[in-house]
Amino acid sequence: MIRVLAVADSDPNLEWGEGLLGGARDRIDHYSVVLRGPDPPTRAQIRSAAGRVVPVVGAHRLLALVGELEPDAVLLACSSGVVGALLDYPALRGPARPVLIAGAPGIAYPVGPTKLRAMAGIDLLIVHSRTERAAYRRLLVDDTEFADQATQIGLATLPALAGAEVRRGRQALVVFAAQDAVPATARQRRAILDALAAVPPEYMPVIQAGIPGRRRGSGAPAAYADLEPHPRIEFRHGGAAETLDHAAGCATISGTVALQALARGIPVLALDDFGIGPALGNEVFEDSGLFGGLGDLREARFRSPVRDWLLANYFQPAAEADWLARLDGLVARRNSGALGAATPGQVAPRARVARQLRLRLPGISRYADAARGRRPAN
After folding, report:
1. pTM given for the model
2. 371 pLDDT band (50/70/90 cuts)?
3. Bigger pLDDT: 103 or 212?
4. CATH number assigned to the domain comprising residue 141
5. Which of 154, 157, 160, 344 is 20 to 30 A away from residue 105, measured at CA?
């Protein structure tokens, strides 16, 4: 068995890490912790994400655990800034270190140099689609900046899609999967609310939103529930699976909930009224056949995806997953003494100090974020 210490800094990252490692429980024995940060998940959020109690630890205790548990590998299910801050410490970068794994809990496309640069020092970067894997590999091969970066790209099935079953029969819900950051203006959000309230009477409009009670910085867009939505619209919070089990269609800007809907055979509408691009996180849906507008939402007209797009984006055959085989090889190299020290990317001294302050003094960072009108990092 491979012994893995899993570290998460938010409830979505915790849920992803638990799903990834739990899906390989016949090969992996893992111990999980939540890293205390400026915006830590609540006990209820942790229990919802992991299905059990997971201890919350500070950075000092985490580094001590690396020495006590002597894991073969450490999964850093954390934001890129936290990953970089943790790699400042010898316990995670010295020659006797564990194998270092990282990844993202959902859609990680488009891929660019900034994302790969943040993963310098990571041995195995988990991605979930052929498209993401090809984009990272192109950077590693074609961009001279990464000529010496030894990060391997491992493909895994997105845990949120594992075990989903196609539903049968007519369903009554028209679901809009809301996201915290997009669209960015209250006017755009009201337009979505108006379209959702106008769906044909045989459907029940539902907004599937995030977990209530999560802090929102002063620069965050207004929550849909604060925009005087039509009383016909029902709000649901937390995991989307139960809502999707009764959905006739799912509309969204972007996000993993759309993929969860497709895994159940539910048609999807990716709204393009507000544009297509990195700021909206919806470039991944290009060539999918899923784009449409608010007029389609009003009429409950949803789309079925193009098959070739499905295969390239998150719905590749499970047999293509190679992350466990790559992890086996990396652990074997570590055990033979051939893994060597990690080589994180270069960071300006001021930036290094700032990320260490966020890691070591999360309470102070939270108040500084609030004073600057900045949303806490997840």
Report:
1. 0.90
2. very low
3. 103
4. 3.40.50
5. 344
The answer to the question of residue 167 being in a domain is: no
Q: Which two tokens stand for residue 281?
A: 């996180």
pLDDT tens-digit readout, 56-68: 999 999 999 999 9
- What distance in Å separates the CA atoms of residue 239 and residue 197, rounded to the nearest whole number? 22
Which helix (H) or strand (E) element contains residue 6?
strand 2-8
What the block records as the tokens of 90 is 């010898």
Running DSSP on this structure, what letter comes out for residue 281?
T
pLDDT (average), residues 13-25:
97
Helices (H), the chain: 11-22, 43-50, 59-69, 80-86, 90-93, 113-118, 130-142, 186-197, 241-244, 256-263, 294-298, 307-312, 323-335, 349-360, 362-372
Cross-strand partners of 30: 4
Q: Distance between CA 285 and CA 265 in Å, rounded?
A: 17
The first and second tokens of residue 287, run together, are 């060539």
Using the 3D structure, point to which of 286, 312, 338 is the last residue of a domain: 312
d(CA 7, CA 15): 11
